[in-house]
Design goal:
The chain is of the alpha/beta class. Helix content is 31%, strand content 22%. It has two domains: 4-65, 2-Layer Sandwich (Alpha-Beta Plaits); 70-390, 3-Layer(aba) Sandwich (Rossmann fold), CATH 3.40.50.200. InterPro entries: Peptidase_S8/S53_dom, Peptidase_S8/S53_dom_sf, Peptidase_S8/S53_subtilisin, Peptidase_S8_Asp-AS, Peptidase_S8_Ser-AS, Peptidase_S8_subtilisin-rel.
């Protein structure tokens, strides 16, 4: 019997004779979400084509998708910082989002970073409570450098007299390693989102995306398909995975009714090459209910959209010449990318969450998302910036 791996998100009480056999036979581990009115479970199962069709037809099934490969939204550029360069009070990105002017510092808030892990020994993270979970089969710490840089922007402490982090007094930082030198899948990421939610995350930050070209290539090689049918099949699963992340975002929102509120922010992607062409936001950021982040950089006229930044974003943040922690050293490194913009938004989200917590005693998903997106401003941007490119504008910290 030919079977393939599928990610299944469904109401736990959803039972049919076929499905019950499928999920029992698969032997996959079941993870249950407590949700008002029903329990939701997420699992990876081995299903035949007929079984997958049966699941899709059941109205209680939220999503069925085949796992697609993930890739880090790789920085466009990496440039080591000169250790002899005089320190500055804060990076330009920290200043642009007005973090130094805010009285909030992330106290009482938990942020989850789903990325390539972290270098816990970097001085930027001294004294921060890190909770690490490894979803890969490689070293649990960051051997790629991407996650460490992102973490530095969200919550890193000052390094050599320079402020690199926004929410420097988080209650906890959840670090889920979902990929690194080896590729993860959308199933890995779905499990990591569930882990972050159950661990009490108020903000989930993801600077990664689905590797569509890599998936097409795997179909061509493994199934010996021609490029055209392989692309069509990949598009089908691409849509299914967008639906999966949309449903996961809805689950996160529903969880807010009985637990703490949480929001997901994700990088829009670096595939555009402006002005030649623009690419729309890629999943998981393309999922409804996930805040898609675009990147901007400095110019003499004001901040301008980065040439690589994908379009149709919800909000923008500094993503060029971003100085943050370098894995494997005690130094800083400069990178460009929407991966670097996303942790700015995640850090600012933590400040807004702290404000909610202080005012109302809890964090609520919908209002936190609304406040964060509404904080965007066009004031620091070059005149004529397009909404598709920057969303509501440059994200801003709450001041009081």
């Amino acid at each position: 019997m030919n079977t393939e791996k599928y990610i299944v998100l469904q109401s736990r009480e959803a039972v049919s004779a076929t499905r019950g056999a499928n999920l029992t036979r698969s032997g996959a581990g079941v993870t249950t979400f407590a949700q008002p009115g029903s329990d939701i479970r997420l699992e990876e199962a081995d299903l035949t084509k007929r079984e997958s069709h049966d699941l899709r037809r059941d109205p209680r099934t939220r999503a069925v998708a085949q796992p697609m490969p993930l890739k880090l939204i790789a920085p466009i550029r990496r440039m080591a910082a000169d250790a002899t360069t005089p320190s500055t009070p804060e990076t330009w990105g920290i200043k642009a989002v007005r973090a130094p002017e805010s009285r909030f510092d992330g106290s009482g808030i938990t942020v989850a970073l789903l990325d390539s892990g972290i270098d816990p020994n970097h001085p930027a993270f001294a004294g921060i409570k890190l909770v690490q979970q490894n979803f890969t089969d490689e070293d649990p710490n960051d051997i790629e450098g991407h996650g460490t840089h992102c973490a530095g922007t969200i919550f890193g402490g000052d390094v050599n007299g320079t402020r690199i982090g926004i929410a420097r007094n988080l209650d906890r930082a959840l670090i889920g390693k979902v990929l690194g030198k080896s590729a993860g899948t959308s199933a890995t990421l779905a499990k990591a989102i569930q882990w972050a939610l159950q661990e009490g995350a108020h903000v989930i930050s993801m600077s990664l995306g689905i590797d569509f070209p890599g998936y097409v290539d795997s179909l061509v090689k493994q199934k010996r398909m021609n490029i055209n049918p392989a692309t069509s099949m990949a598009l089908e699963e691409y849509r299914a995975n967008i639906n999966l992340f949309t449903e996961l975002a809805r689950l996160v929102q529903a969880y807010s009714a009985i637990g703490q509120g949480a929001i997901i922010v994700a990088a829009s992607g670096n595939e555009s090459r402006r002005p030649a062409y623009e690419i729309a936001v890629a999943p998981p950021a393309a999922g409804e209910g996930i805040i898609a982040v675009g990147a901007v950089g400095e110019s003499d006229q004001g901040c301008t959209v980065a040439k690589f930044s994908n379009s149709q974003v919800d909000i923008a943040a500094p993503g060029m010449n971003i100085l943050s922690a370098e894995a494997g050293t005690s130094n800083l490194i400069m990178m460009d990318g929407t991966s670097m913009a996303t942790p700015h938004v995640a850090g600012i989200a933590a400040l807004w969450a702290q404000r909610q917590l202080e005012m109302h005693g809890r964090v609520e998903n919908a209002s936190l998302m609304a406040q964060l997106v509404a904080s965007g401003t066009y004031t620091p941007l070059v005149p004529g910036s397009a909404e598709d490119d920057v969303g509501t504008g440059m994200v801003q910290a709450p001041l009081n």
